[in-house]
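quick one: S-adenosylmethionine bound model?
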Amino acid sequence: MRTGGEILELGAGTGRMAAALLAELAAQGVLPERYTILEVSADLAARQRECLARLPQGLRERVVWLERLPEQPLRGVILANEVADALPCRRFRLDAGGITELGVVLDAVSEEPGAGSQPIHFRDGAVAADASLACACNEILAGLPGPLPRGYTSEVCLRLAPWIATLSACLARGLLLISDYGLPRRHYCHPQRVSGTLRCHYRHLAHDDPYINLGVQDITAWVDFTRVADAALAAGLEVSGFATQAAFLLGLGVEGLVTEAGADIERIRLAAEARRLIMPEEMGEAFKMMALGRDLDLPLAGFALQDLRHLL
Ligand SMILES: C[S@@+](CC[C@H](N)C(=O)[O-])C[C@H]1O[C@@H](n2cnc3c(N)ncnc32)[C@H](O)[C@@H]1O
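yep, here:
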């Protein structure tokens, strides 16, 4: 309410988070007049409509889908949960001859593919990095405490800065909350992380082969939160908080939600869910929360327990 009260969710996936948020905001008596969703995938927008149609009318009628960012800057909160890691990234490798970009080349086309096998096969193809990629990589290398080993492979998302700048232009006052798998730069580009962070997800299985399940698997790369913070500062936003998901949820009192649940069975279910979100080997450490603010001087409870901004 103190930010202005509007909500814009970017890339709402299945719509489950929007449904849960609207129900909770209603329970707290702070429903926004409109809950806007910007979704680039027509398929997902249809799934969101289906999911949100199950909400009580007083909630579902507040949801509005946008095809582009609003022209009038908003006062409120912009949410981007697992969206930044879906932005296309560039893969690079540090070779003896310089910085190489890893692209995709056609490997083979099977004339008569066997049942269940792919007719088209791709593989990595290496070319010398172009000027924009080389410049970004050199900037990264220059800022690290030491050199990286030859053959070191990683990713850089050159779309992050323009994305943040566009979102900043949409925010008159309030917060942009980015939650994603990610790391500050010095951990992202640690010499031991030799093969980067590119990961594929298909039917709840995670692996690192982007050349299978063509067209149906989710391909992501972790977010370099130092790049996000630099872009935010350049766009006139403040980095108001940066914490692991575990610290964020504990700061917001997730334990209380579990212990206050009435029936034993519900408590056990919630405890298992909370554990997955909080335990370091699950999503607690790798998943981060970053708050970027404009014209806002409020204590943010989710960032009260931990401040990782010094790592950026
Ligand atoms: C993993 S889903 C997000 C899940 C959802 N936010 C949630 O909390 O359940 C990724 C979302 O990012 C959106 N997305 C993917 N690439 C995008 C891009 N280039 N620009 C904007 N949104 C994008 C997808 O359409 C999808 O809704």
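Residues 264-278 form the longest helix (15 residues).
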